[in-house]
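Category: protein sequence paired with discrete backbone structure
Discipline: computational structural biology
Format: plain text, a pair of labelled lines
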Amino acid sequence: MSVLRRLIYREVFTAVTTVTVAFIGLFFFFDFIDELSGIGRPAPGATQLVYELRHALLYVLLQTPNRMYDVLPISVLIGSVFVFARLAQSSEYTILRTSGLGPWRALRMLLGLASAFVVITFVVGDYAAPEATKAGQLLKARFAGRLDAGPTGAWLKERQNGQEALVNVLALSPDGQLQNIRIFEYNQQGNLLARTQAQTGWITPDDTWQLSQVVRTEFAGHRHAGTDTPLTPTQTLPSLNWHSTLTTEMVSVAFLQPDRMSTLALYSYVQHLDATGQSSQLYEIAFWRKVFYPLSCLVMMVLALPFAYLHFRSGSITGYVFGGVMIGISFFLLNNVFGYIGRLNDWQPWLAAASPSLIYTLISLSAFGWLVLRR
């Protein structure tokens, strides 16, 4: 049985690797085409720094772990379907069955191989992809002059000393400097106490925000004599230290896409959002997708096994492989769509993230029961 295991493992692993490399090459080409429009443009305020071809190639190369993470479950399905369909067409799988490879033994064998792909997907998605994404964003920030989080910037919230503060950071420079900072401080009744604006800022190791070129306006506790009109004394300061519980990691996370963060970073950020009373559904769905997405390799492998029990005519294998491609693409699309459906209908985050895998698990088990066990 070890000979059969080595044979199937080698064939499936080779096919999955080939499909993965083909997908990555295709995405690399499209990503590189998108980057061509920026080549030759100087960085703002630094005419000596020009976005060159080598920078574009490096940036696209840094997107490779993300692409690999996205396509691995699909590659597992397509590669496995190709191998099993080819073995069935050449009657090799029939010989393997007569050698003692029953349905349940084949399923256990494939689940062992699929577990290896689960580990690979998890490592790529949780370690390689987040680090490569950060490096790519910092590379782009060198030539854009800053790292943006959209037109409104990144918004954060914290609670301390019975008060709340909303913090808006428009951009983050490549060296970690905060740009265009706005801080709105409230009391427990929701009254605005103060507004602080700063051109730049740094976060020290003890989580103190060192703000520069500050304009601070206080609203509470100051009124004109004999009237109820509140004063808004404004101070212009060269620098100001603002003590906060918001760390450099929290601010950096706010500039990343949720699906490109590691599982641990997502969990920590969800805890921070819950502690400050903010909506965390988007990041909770992303967290549970990180948990369930590697496990989809198990589902894809089970879905591919029934193809080994089909009867093929000459040339019909192409249609089945194409069907496997369509199933893989539909899973990828459904995985994204259910995230939006879950947010719109206020589903439990784990349910929105697990629904595609649960649906395809039922399909794979039904196909296995009908084609393999019953027929």
